[in-house]
Structure formats: C-alpha cells, structure tokens
Structures
1.
Amino acid sequence: AQQPGTPLSDHEYHQFFKFLRVTIQASTACHLRELYGCKNSLIQRLDEYENHGVIPPGPICSELPGNPFFRNFCTFSLYRCIMKKYFLKV
C-alpha cells in the first residue's frame, strides 16, 4: 500500500491512464449519440460492436435498482450517457 500523497507506481499510472482513455472514448461515443441519434449508421455500428454484432431488440433489462427496464437498446444507451454510467451492462 502506498502512503497518501505519494505518486502512483508505474503499474498504477498505466491502469489510471488506461481507464481514463476508455472513459474519454465512451464519453465521445455518447456525444456522437446525442448529436446524431441511434439511427445513425456509425452509432448503429458502435452498438453492434458492443453487442457482438447484433443490436438487442427491446425490452432491455439492467441491474439498476429502481430502473431495470428500458424500451430498447437506444433508450438504455442514452440513459448510460446521461447518467455517465458508461460501463453499465444489461
């Protein structure tokens, strides 16, 4: 365990920036979704990529307490973007 206030180790920095890059990429995808909507071909390719080639048909259930149900994958993805819960899974 590191002492509070000391710099991260090389391994810890690698993990920190790896997470940061992934979060920035997720945020960028959300901005594209907000600009172009779910019917945009780029957004549909991203959704397909995220789901191993197929956009799941609705309804979508998640592990969220109090809000487990979404009409479709687009609604679920928009919720993740708005709430900045980029890595929330179905």
2.
Amino acid sequence: VLQKWVNREISNFDYLIQLNTMAGRTYNDLAQYPVFPWILRDYTSEELDLNNPAVFRDLSKPIGVVNEKNAKAVKEKYENFEDPLGIVDKFHYGTHYSNAAGVMHYLIRVEPFTTLHIQLQSGRFDCADRQFHSIPATWQALMDNPNDVKELIPEFFYFPEFLENQNGFNLGQLQISKEVVNDVVLPKWAHSPEDFIYKHRKALESEYVSAHLHEWIDLIFGYKQRGPAAVEALNVFYYCTYEGAVDLDALTDEKERKALEGMINNFGQTPCQL
C-alpha cells in the first residue's frame, strides 16, 4: 500500500482509509472510528486558494499545538505532572483526538448517531453551544483551546448530508447570539454542503497535502506515536489510550475492570502502531 501511495496509484483518501483499517480502526466501533486530519486552516476567505501553502494546517504538529501559543502550556503540563501512585505516566493531553463522543458530535444530524448522542446525554440533546454547529467556529475553538484536540472523521471528505439538518431536529439555540442551530455553518468559500465536500476533498488530494501527509501519519500511526519521539513532538496522551497499556485480564476485581473498560471505551484509543 505504501509503495502504491508513493507511486500515486492510490489517492491520499484511500491511503488513509487503508492505514486506519490496518491499525484496527473501523466504522463498526465508535470507540475506534477511522481518524482523518484537519488539513486546512483557512475557513474565512471568500475563495480557497489551494496553491497557497498558507491555507493548509501544519501537518507535522499534533492538532493541540498547531497554534504555537498552546505549545508552552502543553509542555508545562507534561513537565509538571506527577502521579503520587506512580501509575499514570506523564502526558500532554488529558483528552483524545478520536473518541465515540467526538464521532457522535460530528454526525449528530444523521441517524443512528442522533439517537446514540441522545442516549449518551441521558435522553436529550446536549446544550446548543456544545453542538457541532459551524466549521469555522470549530476550527477557532481548536486554535484557542489546547484541551480540545479532535481530529476529523472520513465523512468530512465524502458525505455532504451530515452537514444538513434534513431531519429537522430541534438542536436548540446558541446562548449569546440566540442563533438557532440548524444546518452546519460552512466556510465562506463553500457555497453548499456538496461544494464544501468537493473542495475539501480536493484539498486532501492537493500537492501540498501529498507532500506532507506522512508527517501526520507519523504522529497518529507511526514512530512519533509513543516513546521519546512522541514526547519531543508534544504528542503524548493519557496512558489508558495506548494499546497494551493496561492488562485487563490481570485485574481480578470485577468492578475495577468494568470501570477501566468503560474509561478506555469512552476516552478514545490511539490506533495500533504501524
């Protein structure tokens, strides 16, 4: 697959899907859903110029520190962390870039994710301000908050329907602007959900992304995923998210095991290292 990708026989999209599959990610498990990168940083221009490198996100950095301002806080958090019991290793992020709640967050307007979201929120929609209501606002929140590190899901590159409230769900209204949450607000350069998907997919297959995608793959699936390279890349997550970090079979206390299993399922899981 790698050779095919290098020879440009398969698209960037196909390559990412194959890597996700090899690393144990699947559409059948919300806790291990395929993970895709944010690839753009320009959600405000009238036109999207894919020949301009400045419109792309820096793929060599984890999403939590794409904004240089956050790097210092993230570093300090890691350096100052001390677990008195010695169980929890140091980490940069207490949340994860891919988890079940995040998948439902993005796909809230389409079933069965709507129902799953409502179940997760004890029988109702989460408050409107926490809903996925705008792509530019979501990106801005990522830039402002080093604790929000959600990457994307594959649907952002082929499935315009998830951006529309075709079922007419009442998702509430935003507290400050009183704006009603309905269809997802798109970047100015996108004239419709289809147009957004078309341009976003074009961006994914662009020359710039083709030349830099491996940098992101190193962080998520490759050698910068754990160990000294991960520390240096500011890419260490809570210990439970890593494969083999916890030996569930060794836990004899049923309650403790259930609690840990629940945590692993809800918290997010780092893909198997390829």
